[in-house]
Write a structure and sequence with these properties.
Chain B: Keywords: Membrane, Transmembrane, Transmembrane helix. The complex is a heterodimer of chains A (411) and B (159). Chain A has 13 helices and 14 strands. In chain A, the strands form 3 sheets. A 7-stranded antiparallel beta sheet of chain A has the order 7-6-5-11-10-9-8, sandwiched between helices. Chain A is of the alpha+beta class and 411 residues long. Chain B has 159 residues and is of the alpha+beta class. Chain B folds into 2 domains: 61 residues; 82 residues, PH-domain like (Roll), CATH 2.30.29. Helix content of chain B is 49%, strand content 27%. Chain B contains 4 helices and 7 strands, in the order βααββββαββα. In chain B, the strands form 2 sheets. Chain B has a 4-stranded antiparallel beta sheet with strand order 1-2-3-4. A 3-stranded antiparallel beta sheet of chain B has the order 5-6-7. In chain B, strand 2 and strand 3 form a beta hairpin. The model of chain B has no long low-confidence stretch (mean pLDDT 87). The chains are: A alpha+beta (411), B alpha+beta (159). At the A-B interface, helix 1 and strand 4 of A face strand 5 and helix 4 of B. Strand 4 of chain A pairs antiparallel with strand 5 of chain B, so a sheet runs across the interface.
Amino acid sequence: MIGPVEEAPGGGREATGGPEGAAPWRRLSPRMLLIHPVQEVVRMAPALLGLLIAGSSSGNPGMVWSLCGVAAVVLYGVLRWFTTTYRLTPEHVRLRKGVVLRKVLTVPRDRIRTVDITSPPLHRMLGLARVEIGTGRSGISAGLTLDSLSAEEAARLRVELLHRRGTAGGETRPAAGAAPTVATGPAAESGQTVATAPAPQTGPPAGEAASSPGPGETLLAELRPGWVRFAPFTMSGLVAIGVFATFVWRLFSEWGVDVRRVGPVREGWHWFSGLGLTSQLVIGVPAFVVIVAIASTFGYLFAFWRFRLTRHDGTLHVTRGLLTNRATTIEERRLRGVRISEFLTLRAVGGATLTAVTTGLNQGSQRSGALLPPAPRAEAERVARRSSSTARRRRPPGPARPVPRPPVRHR
Amino acid sequence: MLRAPAHRVSRTAIWYWFTKALLGWLIAAGFQAFWVVVRDHHEPLRIAALTATVVLAVPHIAVMPWWRYRVHRWEATPLAVYTRSGWLTQEWRIAPISRIQTVDSVQGPLERLFRLATVTVTTASAAGPVRVSGLGAETARRLVAELTANVQSTTGDAT
């Protein structure tokens, strides 16, 4: 296992050669040595649990087996750190990884569209952040994930990957319209200051680096506490409850326990089925609605707490999250448009959601392209105009605002 | 008529495909043999299944690797990546360099044993990535470096 690890960096250098061979291969944060094993144990939990159950029926040796299983998984987690290296050159970002299956992933710098920085609670505690680099290809193997770097390193990387390239494509510069300095030189410099500014102050938490607007930043939207009133109407709680229920159900069946035999559940069910159909509906439906509303509200707070949408140097930047911090950066010249959608129940109370239409974002999670939490429709329209305005203004190279912008249409 | 891509894959790939197929069939046949030995009814059915496996496996292992070697070809120019792969079903694919999103190279344990690598070129296409398998590890590295350099020199949106 160690052999290919040690030969890996050398092999890369001889292959690429030339001046870029000078770029050093970097490792992930050493603090990942603590997180990787935990991640692997959690990921392997069903298998380990199965091993434990199978083991406990055969007495003492079974325990030994399951301990061996845990040890192997932990070892694998540690090896993950030793086998992962990455490198930035002026042309590309390259990641080498894999314990058994060796992979070398290369993303040309020019193809990078989005940078997504996520800090789940465990990462936050250790001051780490996961960086996902998105390309025009969307899907599971969409781009390249560095899990994880220190928060400062992640913030630096984001700026380096997106903003420095903004300097090359100078026509996007007027995007930072509200900033007093619009000339190319100062704006580029301010980009650099933002890059370095968060470094000293961000000790522990990742996303908090962006809590104060930097020099070149324009604030487009921010979460207002009043918007939480829309949370119960998003119905996102339905999904959460579904996931939770499935998880509990699987856990119980994994342990071979019949949920209907558990004391309180059985008595509750007994009491409920004793009622007539009318009373069942009268109690059941409101109870269900209340539970969904509560779950939706929690989901809203977890996802959108400290939500901020800013524009900076040709990119849109979203930071949000209560426990898991997320920072998504979308290059504006790759933004194809915005979408306002009004879910039935949300429409009933005058709310709407706003998402970005772009490639390179994780399509799996609905909220990764969110430009606004569920909010009043007027607000969604306002932000839609502001966030898509540069795309429209860029087309005619004439005066700044030749025609009044058409209102954003929605259905 | 389309001309075939210029380069063949590494000759070692024949033995890699051979070993891979052999291992796969051995596992399948092993399970079936175990079944024949252990259980004591439906004997004829299980023996028939095992026989069928062997009858399918032998020609596959004996023919597929060499056939594949004759088919698999690749070529990378400053304009496009061009591949031909498969054996019974053959696929010809061209990905313009200007559409390339990422360039990956993957080495599984068995590939590492044979010093081979697979280069995967992803595009925004819904048809999935273009793969060049059975390349020598060194060739794969050069191909990745060359592709990346070419991609960087063609700016644009790539979707």
